[in-house]
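Board notes (copied after class):
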Amino acid sequence: MLLWLLQGIPFLTCLLYFVVLIFSATLHEIAHGWVAYKLGDPTAKMMGRLTLNPRAHLTKMGTLAMLLLPIGWANPVIINPRNFKKPRRDTIIVSLAGPIMNLLICFVSLLVLIIFLRIFGINSPAMNALGTICVAIASVNSILMIFNLIPIPPLDGSKIFTEWLPYKAREWLWRVQQYGIIILFLIIYLIWPFISWLQGLIVNGIYGGLYHLFF
């Protein structure tokens, strides 16, 4: 949020993105916990992680990152693979649930935008506010999806990636996890142009497809 302000983005726009980021991260973690519960692991439910209350999901460090940077994270949902019928398969499914939730939110926000464009037209005064909100939701969630699929601990991508590795390689990644945040920020700094390009590709692709469908 602070980085956006320093770049000259209006305060209310920064606040909107901050609020969207908090609730998007919350829904991301709920998706992990809910899918784990459906697959036989009640750990997240027992820890109170299936609630829409952001306070059950946010961490001080992750929230601070949201305030200072254009990205942040919530407290990862704890799962117990021993409760799954097929631990490797179900761990991958649970790990994918968060990014899929973000993609779904992105899709729904753009669908709402297209439907209202169809009903009220592009020159409607209400469309400016609605358009800003929908684009903010789509942008934040597409970034969260991409961000969480990076195969670096503790992100979801690392859990998906490590399930396909030999034990020794997984053991090495577990040791690296303590430096994960530092490595992650370095990599994000290096590949941010690619992340931005991929985000635009996703958002514009969904919007373009829906636009051609409805118009």
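Comment from the instructor: The mean pLDDT is 88. The chain has one domain: 2-214.
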